[in-house]
Write a structure and sequence with these properties.
alpha/beta; 7-stranded parallel beta sheet; globular
Length: about 325
């Protein structure tokens, strides 16, 4: 009998998003909604499991943890990238790591939800209306403003195209971006510092890596206009959160819209106290459509492993077959 753990199901939806009953009879599927961070505590919980389904990057799997999971044969992450998994350590131990596909549009849509919430002060107006007040502020329009897209891949391109629909001027930067690629989505390639200096809204759409970690710090924020907003729906560590709190508090920038954080699910000190910051709890992929697709593919990975076959979507295909039999 295989034992499968599904981690960090904050919204208690994992069982509804896929047909876990299609797994072979006797497969034990345990779902955990609470988040554990301490390595020893996580290791104690998962020591008897053959497979783990990790919800995005909520629980990290460094070498120190993998070495304490002797029964683990398969580690499935929702999404194909997970910087919190030590793939090299997993490979050394013969643990197959695989991912799932997602949907290309929900995070881009959420980005615009944060932008509109900030520009039109929707959270503050919602709160005031519930308290019996009426029209307590004036917002800003997007038409004619400059949108700076940091990272013009699949998500960034979608955000840029919507910016054009709002009749914004769209500029873009990433380390490997070309003028031709930027022009394809109606953007103009500029240097990073120029983007930060010109943008009324700067939106981050980069993969977390060694070269993007801490990319936006105190120096970069100081380049922005005091009327500008920063949006981050990519990964928290790309932005120095302490520097961001200071910049917003001092009025270096006007505010920020965040869906990701340095140390999820814990917020940096002072962040929650800033009125001109809109905070979402990493909702980018938290749609029924995305979670259903991820859950279905996770089950496919488990079915392959239960049949003694290498699961699809392998991140480390050099590992041996991760069969449970």
């Amino acid at each position: 009998m295989a034992r499968v753990a599904i981690l960090d199901d904050y919204q208690h939806v994992a069982r509804r998003m896929a047909d876990w009953s299609s797994l072979p009879p006797g497969t034990d599927v345990s779902v955990f909604a609470d988040h554990l961070k301490d390595t020893a505590t996580v290791a104690a919980r998962l020591a008897d499991f053959d497979a783990v389904v990790a919800m995005r990057e909520r629980t990290a799997f460094p070498r120190a943890l993998l070495e304490r999971l002797p029964k683990l044969k398969l580690l499935v992450t929702t999404g194909m990238r997970n910087a919190s998994i030590d793939v090299a350590a997993a490979t050394e131990r013969g643990i197959v790591v695989c991912g799932t596909a997602g949907l290309p549009y929900p995070t881009a849509e959420l980005t615009w939800g944060l932008i509109l919430a900030l520009m039109r002060r929707i959270p503050a107006e919602d709160r005031a209306t519930r308290e019996g007040q009426w029209q307590v502020s004036c917002g800003l329009g997007l038409n004619g403003k400059t949108l700076g897209v940091i990272g013009l891949g699949g998500l960034g391109s979608r955000v840029a195209k919507v910016g054009r629909a709002f009749e914004m001027d769209v500029i873009a930067w990433s380390q490997n971006l070309t003028e031709a690629r930027a022009a394809e989505v109606g953007a103009k390639l500029v240097a990073k510092d120029e983007l930060l200096a010109r943008a009324d809204v700067a939106s981050i759409h980069l993969v977390l890596s060694d070269r993007t970690r801490g990319l936006i710090g105190a120096r970069e924020l100081s380049l922005m206009k005091p009327t500008a907003y920063l949006i981050n729906t990519s990964r928290g560590p790309i932005v120095d959160e302490g520097a961001l709190v200071t910049a917003v508090r001092k009025g270096t920038i006007a505010g920020a819209g965040l869906d990701v954080y340095e140390n999820e699910p814990v917020l940096s000190p002072g962040l929650a106290d800033l009125e001109n910051v809109v905070l979402a709890p990493h909702l980018g992929s938290a749609t029924i459509g995305t979670r259903t697709k991820m859950g279905m593919i996770a089950v496919d990975n488990l079915l392959a492993a239960c049949a003694g076959k290498r699961p699809p979507n392998c991140v480390n295909p050099e590992t041996l077959t991760a069969g449970f039999s």
